Amino acid sequence: RPGHLQITIKDEIGRLIPAIRAVIPKINIPVSIDTYKAEVARQSLEEGASIINDIWGGSADPDIIGVAARFEAPVILMHNQASPKYTDLITDVTHNLTASRQRALDFGISNNNIILDPGIGFAKTPDHNLEILKRLGDFKTIGNPILVGTSRKSTIGLVLDLPVEERLEGTAATVALSIAAGADIIRVHDVKEMRRVSRMSDAIIRGWRPNNWMK
Q: 10 catalytic, yes or no?
């Protein structure tokens, strides 16, 4: 998260690997690992993780892209930077995501394995976050699936003047509008509720229908 305290690679591996070993044998869905460190990613993939989620888009430790390429693992490349200062917000974020995508392609990652995240809440003011959600469709021009993570974030709290545990409806609004604007993947805390929001949104926007649909 923004403002976090750095930990060593050894500490990160010590926290993460036991969790992976505990979870993966009990589920049949892909596991995404949130790290920007190549060695953490390598060991996580060796233990059975499937996806790398890098909040620095492969720029903090470029070797992480090589790790993903060797394992043929999908990568989520998020926009991030040192400060919330932009010449033009949407243009700058688009250029950053495009550069991250090209870096992944240069390492041999298939374009089908690249997912882009505009980085809601990272090096952005609340107004920046709202503008990105409003213009999310602009990032579709890059040509890769877009992931959005708004769940319970502080911008929702500021807009609604609510603590983190009361941001379900605000999150639901951002999820539905993100899907309407072109988001392909959402990252959430309240899985059951947001799955329902996503299905309803997909039924309206993308023509999804349940198997028992009456023709």
A: no
| Residue pLDDT, tens place only, 103-135 | 999 999 999 999 999 999 999 999 999 999 999
pLDDT tens by residue, 166-203: 999 999 999 999 999 999 999 999 999 999 999 999 99
Rounded Cα gap, residues 105 and 141, in angstroms: 17
Tell me if the pTM is above 0.90.
yes
Whether 148 contacts 120, CB under 8 Å? yes
| The two structure tokens encoding residue 158 | 């500021």
Instruction: Give me the sign of the Cα torsion angle 168, 174, 180, 185.
Output: negative
Which of 102, 111, 108, 60 is CA-nearest to residue 81?
A: 60
Q: Is 187 a catalytic residue?
A: yes
The catalytic position among 187, 199, 209, 215 is 187
Contacts of 113 (CB under 8 A, 6+ apart): 68, 72, 73, 74, 75
Catalytic entry in 153, 167, 195, 206: 153
- The beta strands (E) that lie in the chain are given as 32-34, 51-54, 75-78, 114-117, 147-148, 185-186
